[in-house]
């Protein structure tokens, strides 16, 4: 695995171009590393109704309008965190959701986190051993495996590997706990597939979900099902 960190210019492109190029790359947080096998692109304001930035900047999505290569973390369904990598120049509001991957370092810690998640809704039952392929299979599981929480919203993933210290302004990070996106081993283009995005009610047919064909850590596709209001 190539351990050179991706440069910021890698992310300074449209999200639907960055997304397939992220497959096979490795996201590292402390001792845990995940090889990305499934991602989903979201466009800028006014262009993509499924994006959190569609209606413009808010306190919740402000990180998406920041510099590329930063982590945008949000809380969903009142129980899970999900992580995105910001794309395009500052002010544009675009990103890639990290949907799934393979834990290649720190497996024991990732498994422990999956048994004792940081949220109130456990992802596993008592006494159940999490299968290896399921450790980071799905956006919420990936966030738990990597120890990603609300405090990591805005973390910079483009540090210089030669420096042990976080870059100025990173804010939430401490030396040894920074995030990095490594070159890894980019996926064979012949194995990359694309299709409709999953779990969104608007622009769901936009084929901006990308995955490595045949990889067991890719999550199953699910169409959006509207949530019924209690009567």
What do you see in this structure?
This protein has 231 residues and is α+β, with helices and mostly antiparallel strands. It has one domain: Roll (3-methyladenine DNA Glycosylase, Chain A). It contains 3 helices and 9 strands; from the N terminus they run βαβββββααβββ. A hairpin with a 2-residue loop joins strand 2 and strand 3 (32-42). The longest helix is centred in the middle third of the chain and has 9 residues, at 107-115. The chain is globular.
What is the typical, i.e. mean, pLDDT? 86
Global Rg: 17 Å
**Residue runs with pLDDT of under 50 for 5 or more positions:** 117-123, 161-176
The major β-sheet equals: 9 strands, antiparallel
Number of domains: 1
Structural class: alpha+beta
Task: Tell me the name of the CATH class.
Answer: Alpha Beta
Strand proportion, as a percent range, falls in 25-35%
Number of beta-strand segments: 9
Concise description?
The chain has 231 residues and is α+β, with helices and mostly antiparallel strands. The protein is built from three helices and nine strands; from the N terminus they run E-H-E-E-E-E-E-H-H-E-E-E.
């Amino acid at each position: 695995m190539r351990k050179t960190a991706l440069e910021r210019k890698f992310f300074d492109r449209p999200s639907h171009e960055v997304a397939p190029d992220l497959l096979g790359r490795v996201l590292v947080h402390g001792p845990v590393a995940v090889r990305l096998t499934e991602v989903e692109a979201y466009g800028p304001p006014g262009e993509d109704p499924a994006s959190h930035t569609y209606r413009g900047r808010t306190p919740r999505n402000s990180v998406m309008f920041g510099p590329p290569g930063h982590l945008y973390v949000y809380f969903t369904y009142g129980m899970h965190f999900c992580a995105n990598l910001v794309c395009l120049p500052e002010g544009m509001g675009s990103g890639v959701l990290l949907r799934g991957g393979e834990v290649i370092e720190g497996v024991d810690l990732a498994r422990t986190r999956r048994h004792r998640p940081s949220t109130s809704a456990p992802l596993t039952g008592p006494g159940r051993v999490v299968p290896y392929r399921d450790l980071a299979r799905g956006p919420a599981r990936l966030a738990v495996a990597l120890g990603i929480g609300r405090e990591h919203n805005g973390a910079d993933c483009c540090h210089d590997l030669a420096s042990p210290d976080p870059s100025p302004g990173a804010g939430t990070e401490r030396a040894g706990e920074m995030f990095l996106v490594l070159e890894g081993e980019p996926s064979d283009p012949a194995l990359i597939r694309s299709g409709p995005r999953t779990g969104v009610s608007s622009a769901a047919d936009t084929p901006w979900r990308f995955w490595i064909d045949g990889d067991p850590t890719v999550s199953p596709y699910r169409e959006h099902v509207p949530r019924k209001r209690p009567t």
